[in-house]
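cache lookup: miss for this entity combination. No prior model stored, computing from scratch. Input as submitted by user K.M.:
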Amino acid sequence: MASRLVLRIQERYAKLTAGEKKLAQLILDRQDDILTHSATEIAEMAGVSKATAARFFQHLGYADFNEVKLQAREERNQSEPYELSVTNSDQMAMGRAIGAHLELELKNLTRTFEEMRSDKIREAAELIDKAPRVWVLGLGAEEGIARYVRLLFSRLRHSVMLLGINQGSWAEDLAMTGPKDVLLLITLPPHPPLLKSILSYAKTSRLNVVTITDRTSLFEMQRVSKVVLPCHVTSFALGASLTAVSSAVRLLALTYAAHAGKSAQQRAEIVDSIKEEFDSFN
Amino acid sequence: MASRLVLRIQERYAKLTAGEKKLAQLILDRQDDILTHSATEIAEMAGVSKATAARFFQHLGYADFNEVKLQAREERNQSEPYELSVTNSDQMAMGRAIGAHLELELKNLTRTFEEMRSDKIREAAELIDKAPRVWVLGLGAEEGIARYVRLLFSRLRHSVMLLGINQGSWAEDLAMTGPKDVLLLITLPPHPPLLKSILSYAKTSRLNVVTITDRTSLFEMQRVSKVVLPCHVTSFALGASLTAVSSAVRLLALTYAAHAGKSAQQRAEIVDSIKEEFDSFN
DNA sequence: GCAATAATGAAACAACAGTTTCATGATTAT
DNA sequence: ATAATCATGAAACTGTTGTTTCATTATTGC
């Protein structure tokens, strides 16, 4: 249930004045701050006077700021904790398709993480920590997310590489792998036959395979992996939903960052600063 | 989420006076209320005078109630942050990490779709339907998801291309674009400077820009886009969360598929059958 | 039971939040 | 260009919050 305040702001956004837009943007961005911050503080953060802030809420139809605060509290008490299913009335408000989509995605996410074992994640993080090199692999539809994963982890540690970055270079890349290296595999059914050959090679060269896949592939993948993190990927159409997968790899990266601690943090800072310099050329 | 306030109360609970125990109980029960309620309100709820409440916080070692409020805010920002740095990820105790992660992601998803306007999605789907060609663009961390988007849509229609697939080919690719083509842009802050130039070119060549971005970039992107679909990307660390973005592009694809109807479905079937044949060779 | 001490609330007070007024600067229409 | 309207911040003002004082009421130790 989006707060009435937010809905009201969006509805009237086009007609707001410059200062009011600053406020609107701030509030939409940081919706929770309405609950915790005073109008004066909000005005300061938005860079307008408190007079403008007071008027803003009046123009939105509230008698005073107190009314805003009370409404926000009331809405929080109704919707907290963040709900896992979408009520029918919610669906009406946002259009059937969006509501149904949201509900399915929430379900995927919730189930994925409720079933996720923190010891497995920690184990995966540890393997990655100990690995001389990390190879990321995603074939077909999973190539995109594999690239994202590589980027995520290469901010946190050295030697994170995409496996088979050009089609056909499997052999070369695989030849470079060593024992204790981690193969971070993202794969959803239908698993292409090519995967089988890569995994059998991985086995012989003693790669530690960390697999992120869907629930139904869990057992199949467990046979060839050290750690498997299964996700719920149910969808209406267009193949599996990557939403929970993307969230799971993110959690893995966060866990790794926590595990690796300072060194990961330092690296992230360095990478950022390099990027900044780089940007100034483009 | 054990706040210092709560710890302090628990530690000293035995030695508290009657009225202070009432306060303590209330605060332990409803920890979030410290963030949202005034000391006066808390006193009332606990059934004590505000004098007692003021003294209570002083006895706990705070200079005044304001210090309590600020500390509570700070602690909330650590477990529910807005900013995009790797700092603090190590402060998360792993057990709770999954729950906290899930909660944050659910919030991102829910807010994203509650605020999403179905007319905008439909408009985007329509633009894509009418476009002779669709160019997908994601720079930096968004390149991965851009590839995924291209794949999704290329199952549904012809002529879906990744823009600047090799760095440096911007110019060539952009030269090939025509009016009514759609540029499907996925971008999150910090937006690289290169984006500006690409967008200004897109404008002159009358590309219809459909942008998927985060809430904070909404207004900035609205100026250069036909349709903007904003997502909530709040995260603990490691930059923006792509979860809601990935879900949003999926919804867009689903909407497009529904819009395009039969033809998209047929195409998907053909693509699938080609892939099957292909697989049998690998 | 009776001081001595501690806890408490009412009221006084100081600080602050939120609203309104007013003067000024910006924008729009003519 | 000029007037008219609008948006805005500074400051005045009002009401609220949080702290402190003080008188009263419980508790404690003896």
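stored under new cache key. The beta strands of chain A are 134-138, 160-162, 182-186, 208-214, 227-231.
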